[in-house]
């Protein structure tokens, strides 16, 4: 499919890496510009004209501008008709999308305080009680993933790798790499090892990212 894709966002952003890994799975080329912390400011009028939320990633192609990482991933998979990653069958698609939405609305918020404290060393996130509560909440969410992976015996939504595994796989990597106490979840560990064989995971998770 002949179109030019531009991705705005820094690779230190886990949400940008969702899109980059998706592009690798789709084997599509793109141009990327660094925007965000340490680079061009997302509060600039130029960027706000593209995304009023001042967040990365943003993509631009012949169909216009799009933001929100999960939506971008859905769009790219649909555009390239990769129904193995996101099927068109309603019930099966819903099972993939429920885990994509869970990653955005339940899993991501659980790590916010602890991650800023333990990885970013942000001075505004140094309340020890809130750090401990954040770690517990994060581990609890990962326990839910453990139970799901026990049920499927393979990937998040079933036997096959789907778009949900790109999003959640990066989140699992972040959980494993954060210096904190965590339970041993054997199904999550086996899942992580399985994902580690994929080139996109090697590039956008294992290669020094958190």
Structure classification: alpha+beta
Tell me the series of helices and strands, N- to C-terminal: EHEHEEHHHHHH
Largest sheet: 4 strands, mixed
Distance between the first and last residues' Cα: 32 Å
Order of the strands making up the biggest sheet: 2-1-3-4
Say what oligomer this is.
Answer: single chain
CATH structural fold name of the largest domain:
Glutathione S-transferase Yfyf (Class Pi), Chain A, domain 2
Q: What is the CA-atom radius of gyration, in angstroms? A: 17 Å
**Helix content, binned percent:** 40-55%
- In one word, what is the shape? globular
* Unreliable residue runs: none
How many DSSP-defined strands? Answer: 4
Supply the number of helical segments: 8
Protein described:
The protein has two domains: 6-79, 3-Layer(aba) Sandwich (Glutaredoxin); 90-198, Up-down Bundle (Glutathione S-transferase Yfyf (Class Pi), Chain A, domain 2). Helix content is 55%, strand content 7%. It has eight helices and four strands; from the N terminus they run βαβαββαααααα. It has helices at 14-26, 45-48, 69-79, 90-118, 128-152, 163-177, 186-195, 199-206, and strands spanning 6-8, 31-33, 58-61, 64-67. It has a four-stranded mixed β-sheet with strand order 2-1-3-4, covered by helices on one side. Strand 3 (58-61) and strand 4 (64-67) form a beta hairpin. The chain starts with 5 loop residues before the first strand and ends with a helix.
